[in-house]
Amino acid sequence: MNERIQQLAEQAGFIDRGTNHTAYMNFDHEKFAELIVRECAEQIIAKGTDWVDFAPSQTGVRPEYWDMAQQIKQHFGVK
After folding, report:
1. How many domains is the chain partitioned into structurally?
2. What is the DSSP secondary structure assignment for residue 20, as one 8-state letter?
3. Which of 18, 28, 32, 59, CA to CA, is 20 to 30 A from 11?
């Protein structure tokens, strides 16, 4: 599993007690999905800051990148 996804899974309650099987005792699937959506939106925003010199804005992110990130979060109901 990708290290970042594993970190997000742990934040959502995934418990791995060093065994070869997965344990979902406290795993919050909804929180895990929300964390992934937030991570994706943050990556878009980060990419949008690469171009700030060409299109400065109040948020420090190119407006179209900011809008894309907000639309993704809104689509999945993440604030």
Report:
1. 1
2. S
3. 59
